[in-house]
Amino acid sequence: MIKNFELHTDVLVLGSGPSGFAAAYAAAKNGAEVILVEQGGDVGGISTSGLMSHWTGSCDSPLFHEILRRSAEKNEGRFKAEITNLIDPEKLKTLYLEMLDEVGCKLMLYTFAVDAICDGDKVLGATVVNKSGKTDIYAKVTVDATGDGDIAAASGARFVLGRESDNKMQPATLMFKVGGVDYSRAVFLGSFESTYDTPDGELQALAKQHIPAPAGHILTYETTLPGVVTCNMTNAIGIDGTNADDLTQAMLVCRRQMDDIVKYLRRFVPGYENCFVLSSASLIGVRETRHFAGKYTLTEQDILEARVFDDYVVKDAYFNFDVHNITGAGLDKTGAQKYFPQDNSYTIPYRCLLPELKENLLLCGRNISGTHMAHSNFRVMPICVGIGEAAGVAASLAVSQSCSLSDIKAEEIREIIGI
User: Fold this and answer.
1) What's the total number of domains in the chain?
2) Percent of the chain with pLDDT strictly greater than 70
């Protein structure tokens, strides 16, 4: 028989990716009692279990800069004590745990959030399940940082799945690392629009010819470790990240592609002649699922105009329209990476974190209210840390002031964050 438990807390954060970690840390640092729930065995989501290569994009988030600074203190080898956007997933796992422990956040690993606890439009918390049994966690504020917005969806919050025109979503990827790379000759191509000519031909074109579809591009990134390169080259299309069968299929598809990718690297890419698979992610990289309806929906035009909102809580966000090809390898025709037309950063308003018609619930990370195109920009991890930091501060203010999330002023959030 499954045991049933009940817990109460000020703030409940669901999901411990960069945005969830940031929300839990910021809320606890500002005096709230916090429970952070994570389905895996490590904190960090894609930044750790997903073997993400680096912090791509940027954001004026003091917490993000603290993560970079404290990561530098743990770096070894050629990056010892050096601030870099490269990620050592193993060291970052430990740093996250240390930081959460410092602020007294209660952590529940190996725990799935399975349902919302609601009273009408008020979200009272969530039901979670783990090996100990089922637990109803009641919270004054619930922060959905699950990426897919699982608990927001369970509460009845309105959303659009994927691209507005047809509900199709960006492909999924399994990151992996190869060892045995000769860094003195190694080629690193960091975008789909990056090219490199060899005697056998241009590397992106050769990838399309020699790596079976739907894979067929080269994205390689240096790491903090000697001879080790991170590959962002597997590709699974037609995947709904809210469907467990699709996630299973994505893992199978991507793993089957890894051997062909390594064969391509050994044959065509300078420095990779003796490379081998060293490790692969334990978490499939899902780029896009639900886009929730918030009190404001961020648009691509807001980003292109570099808008500064009166109620902004994320400042100096910057990236490009990183839309991976929905039907195959490479960049979608709507995307722009190397040739992104805007050089200025933008802001994200607090209203994007507030779902329509729901109380006591904050959206956090890539599931905030934004269009398909805007999402392709703000979904990257530094910006998600900024979103999470704002969500955590807002949650702590609502608790300390015993007021609605809608009553919190953006100016109060910015003052505490320091932006």
Assistant:
1) 2
2) 100
Determine if the pTM surpasses 0.90.
Answer: yes
pLDDT at 338: 87
| DSSP one-letter string for 260-285 | HHHHHHHHHSTT-TT-EEEEE-SS-B
Quote the tokens at residue 412.
Answer: 């109060």
In tens, the pLDDT along 338-385 reads 889 999 999 999 999 999 999 999 999 999 999 999 999 999 999 999
Q: Are residues 44 and 138 in the same domain?
A: yes
Segment holding 111, helix H or strand E: none
* For range 189-208, the mean pLDDT: 97
CATH of the domain at 114: 3.50.50.60
Given this model, what pLDDT does residue 9 score? 98
- What is residue 401's three-state secondary structure? helix
Residue 104 structural domain:
4-164+289-417
Strands 106-108 and 34-37, by their bridges, are parallel
333: which residues sit within 8 A by CB, 6+ positions away?
Answer: none
| pLDDT at 1 (0 to 100) | 81
Instruction: For 375, list phi and psi in degrees, rounded to 5.
Output: -60, -35
**How far apart, in Å, are the Cα atoms of 7 and each of 10, 20, 51, 139, 362?**
10, 19, 32, 9, 20
DSSP 301-321: HHHHTT---TTEEEEEEB--B
